[in-house]
Amino acid sequence: MIKLSCMAQMALLFVFTSLITACGGGKPEILMIDPKFAVVGQDLTIMGEDFGDEQGESFVTIGGVSPTLSSYIEWSNTKIVVRIPDFGESGLIYVHRHNQKSNPVLFSTLGSMPEFPKSQLGYAPVIKQIRPASAAIGRLIVIQGNGFGGARNENAVFFSWAAEQQPSVPAEVSQAQLIEARGYAGVYEVWNENEIHVRVCDGAAGGIVEVATPRGRSNAAAFKVDTRPGVKTIRDKRTYAVSYSVDVQTKNAEPPNSIYLWCPVPASTASQLNKETLAGSSKPFINDYHGTTLFRLTDLKTDDERRISVSYLVDVYSVETRIQSELAGGEANLPMLKGWTQASAIVPSDDAEIKVLAAKFTGNEQNPYLKAYSIYKGLLEEFTVLAGKTDVSIRQALLEKELGPYTAAILYCALCRAAGIPAIPVAGILCVKTGSAPPHYWVEFWIDGFGAVPVDIALGAGAADDSFKLRDDHETYYFGNIDNQHLIFSYGETLLSQIDTRGRTASREINYALQNIWEEASGGIEAYSSYWSDINITGIYSN
């Protein structure tokens, strides 16, 4: 029998324990996070169990994004401290260790920046130089100065906005029309105390650039937007008051439990910049969560009835584009357009039949603007678009050669992506008159150096409800232009993550918003029913 010295026994025990720690351990579990609401660049503390004594190959994801290695400040078996990355959105937090993923915990950034008043928190930011002094939409510019803050957080860059003002609007008000550089992942690439790298956002016009922080607004620095490929005109503002409600009734329920409702919010885009929440029946769980307002109903009992109602005031503008097709060349491989180019569950641009059809419509054409127009003309010539048609699958639509408004928009978007043209589907409502408004769908495609170009296949084909006054030039107008009766709820696809992996989710296909989750029930909810009302237009105001 071999006898080991005390020192050797301790060494062997250490090795054995290390092997167990490296190869085993329980599934990581998050017990709490602090804070639950924070800003980009702030330290986030995650408390829990079985994280591992050392980070090693373990990592954290926040909203699907993993922070860089330099962002981790502390890692122990029960505590992780990590700096929040600039992913721009709220989301679920997970701890990943040895191919195991922890329970999710919901986290929200406070990145939605209101108009900042001058404050006494410190000196306002100062812009000293912008390089280059002129750039096209989507191009990266460098803003140099001081007082910008160490990280983006709730700070933002504003450009002059391209919207035309009414002749009666005073000059000083007209000069104040600005658009925030937001809405796309990758708009901001660098933000520190003395330098900002930001891309010129769609809807920006020549005039000024400002930086806004909680300390106040910077000086207005002159900046010119290069409009060489063409000109976008945003005008004819119309304001709509809209509302809708959700009724929930439990059939069989026992606390504790929760029902989450992701209620779509009117989008902020270059043609729909200003929105105001008029009223809500209850306080949201999280405001402005991936283009939705998240409500939480808790501790419901059998036969409980709850209602959530919201209402908004939204400014909608018409958009007209004039593009010199011979100048609309170049690639649009911008980080901010990643979601405009890839196949998705909604947009099957990688489908073999769609690729063949895209090639047929575009032929040998290389110019992206002319390719987009060839696809538009091809669809109008080979397919019948019907306003009242019940939408079917893309596969069935290709077989029957008939399209409803939804399928027409999705098919056009898929064909554009298959042809190498960045494009996104847009969902919302047609605002014709007060009362219930029907869902409607259209597309925007991207031209390098110009920005987004709107296309409405259904209205271009003349597929409109009798209540909608169709233009005589509808076929030419709705390629490149859109009227001020299109109110947007989803600018692209809204991909949400469920709160509790054990919860049951529900979706609502082909509706006024393109989001994958609308409801989630967790806990002691055995059965419940829900009713989402149509969007109701309660007021229309022309300016």
Number of helices: 9
Which fold name fills CATH's third level, the topology of the largest domain? C8orf32 fold
CATH class assignment of the largest domain: Alpha Beta
Name the overall outline.
globular
Helical residue percent band: 10-25%
CATH architecture of the largest domain: Roll
Total strands: the figure is 35
Q: What is the domain total for the residues?
A: 4
Could you walk me through the main structural features you see in this protein, from its secondary elements to its overall organization?
There is one protein chain. By secondary structure, the chain is mainly beta. It has four domains: 26-109, Immunoglobulin-like, CATH 2.60.40; 126-226, Sandwich (Immunoglobulin-like); 235-317 and 494-542; 324-491, C8orf32 fold. It contains nine helices and 35 strands. The strands form seven sheets. Strands 20, 21, 22, 23, 24, 28, 31, 33, 34 and 35 form a ten-stranded antiparallel sheet that branches. Strands 11, 13, 14, 17, 18 and 19 form a six-stranded mixed sheet that branches. Strands 2, 4, 7, 8 and 9 form a five-stranded mixed sheet that branches. Mean pLDDT is 86; it is low at 1-24, 111-121 and 167-175.
